[in-house]
Specification:
- The chain has two domains: 65 residues, no CATH class; 154 residues.
- It has eight helices and no strands.
- The chain is an all-alpha fold.
- The protein starts with a helix and ends in a 5-residue tail after the last helix.
- Helix 1 runs parallel beside helix 4.
- 20% of the residues are buried.
Length: 233
Amino acid sequence: MTKNQFMAELVRELKAAGVSDIEEIVAEYEEHFDFKAEEGKTEEEIARRLASPQEIAKEYADVKEPQNRFERGVKIAGLTFLSLPLAFVYLLMWSAAIVVGAFAACSLAAGFCLVTTINIAELIPQMPYLPALLTGISCFGLAALSAVGSVYMFLFVKQWGKCYLHRCARTANGKSTPALPKFPKITKKAAYRLKLFASIGLVVFVSAFLAGYIAMCLYAGSFEPWHVWHWFE
């Protein structure tokens, strides 16, 4: 069964069962098809893994009946209690994503200072310009790599939050809508660009860092140029 066939049959069954909010239900299943298609699954595979339109319509028809208040209250209380420690973990995940993003910004700023010889508050250690230039370029590569990492972290953390909230809503309301995918939806074009940007950043970082270290050793006449130039004194 293709996506169009599945959706058409689902609409018919929902109307026959007298279910309200049909457009909202259909939109959720369409989004589910789109997410799974991005993962490389065919429409037939996606439809096969879902419940049949008849079963879905029957479950929504059953949900129309008022839910027991005590039962729903117990569900909400349990979900709230469970969500408290998970909220702390989720906050830590957001903090990690922010730290990686801040690290990318700091790497970019450090690279700019090294390349332009701008030394704010003497934070950049003294070295000849060629090693500084190469090290600055390596910082640009590290900034690009970290920026892509932070973008993916933000997307994943956001998607995981949506998945959990969606799951809680399904549990509390007794609905049978499909679970949201754990992976964020990224177009192939955007994913390709991010991958290319990260690859270029990695190559630039590694090659420029090694070249910068070799230049430092040649200028200092030592494999430990930081001691020759008294960086830590």
